[in-house]
Amino acid sequence: MSSTMKYRIKVFRQYKDLILELVKRDIKLKYRRSFLGYVWSVLNPLLIMIVMTIVFSAMFNKTIENYPIYLFTGRMLFECMRNGTMGGLKSVTGNSALLKKTYIPKYVFTLAKVTSQMIETVFSLGAFFIVMFATKTPFHWQLIFLPRILIQLYIFTLGLSFLLAEMNVFFHDIEYIYHAFATAWQYLTPLFYPIERLPNVLQVCIKAFNPMYCYIWQFRDIALYGQTPGPRIVIMGWIWAFAMLAVGLWRFQKQKDRFILYI
User: Fold this and answer.
1) How many domains, in total, are found in the chain?
2) Residue 3 is assigned to a structural domain of this protein
3) Residue 34 dihedral angles phi and psi, to the nearest 5°
């Protein structure tokens, strides 16, 4: 193990308690003064899923088996990625006052934001299992692969968040640009429509260049179809995850010493 890696592990251990406190703070702030508190992490996705099912089922219910589960699996993972990256994007600039007063590794704030969002996604699995029970969907043994999918998504989201957080320090318009990009990304991901409805060229592009397709389709394989995801889509999921983490970390580490001049 290189000396650089040993040093980074040492720093991470030194600040792991701070990361834990930041994660707790983010989760508590979201549900502060909320009457139902953490119950909203189950009710919110459940209510949105019901509304969207009513709206879109008339169009797609006949062509998609068990449309509520199809919709929920896609939307839950995409919202996890989008909310995690939107929080990670502002993680450095949003803590500028603290960073100016004392030395804290900048990546700590981005890591905490993405981790807190992943924990909320785990909470929302309660709503997913309620929908499975309500629609009489079999609980296939392949659901044991769900943690692997969430880990892939977590790594990918973390890498993209590092990249966005670094860019947002120098170009504050990134927040608005990414919001528009995420909206387009959502519609180019088969969340509520069957991918077969798209032209063949667009289907190929989505399968090859949309990382969220890898994670969502793995989820649908295990939850909706009761089958083990194929090795190709699993490998692609890991490649997208670690490639994005490598790029995001590289840019973040390269520019981190300049952050203080712009925040």
Assistant:
1) 1
2) no
3) -95, 130
Does some domain include residue 2?
A: no
Kindly report, residue by residue over 50-81, the tens digit of the pLDDT: 777 777 766 666 678 888 899 899 999 999 99
Per-residue confidence at 4, pLDDT binned at 50, 70, 90? low
Residue 112 belongs to some domain of the structure: yes
Domain that holds residue 43: 15-261
5 in a structural domain: no
Round the average pLDDT of the chain to a whole number and report it: 88
CA atoms in the 13 A half-sphere facing the CB of 157: 31
- Tell me the C-alpha distance between 261 and 263, whole Å: 6
Residues 5-33 as b or e (16 or more Cβ within 10 Å = b): eeeeeeeeeeeeeebeebbeebbeeeeee
Q: Are 70 and 219 in contact (CB under 8 A)?
A: no
CA-wise closest residue to 212 among 119, 68, 76, 117? 76
Give the global pTM. 0.92
Per-residue tokens: 36: 């139902």
